[in-house]
Design goal:
Length: 107
Amino acid sequence: MEADQYFMEGGVYNFDATKLKLAHNYCQNQTRAWMKTDGDQVNVDKIIVSNTFTQEWEMKAYYDMAKEHGYKVYSLIVENRHGGVNEHNVPVEVLEKMDGRFEVKLM
C-alpha cells in the first residue's frame, strides 16, 4: 500500500500536491481495513506500506494500528546509493528538504 496509489487513474500516475493529505488518509484507511479482525482471525497476515517517511510522526498511525491489531512492524530504510532515477519527477529542492528533515530512530 502506498499513498501514491491514490493518484493512479487508469494506470496513469497523476500527482496533485493539493491532495497529498487525502492520499495519506487513503493509505492509512486501507491499511486499517486490512488489519481489522473478524473475531480472532486477522484479515491479512502481512501488509507492506511503502511511503516516503522522513519523520517519526509520519509513521505513528501505522505503528499504533499494528499494536492495536497485533502486528509486528519491520522498517526498511532505502538509501539512494545507486544514483537512482527520481521516478515521480520531484523537484530537487523538495528532495533536499526531505533529506534535511530525515530522522531515524534505531532500536
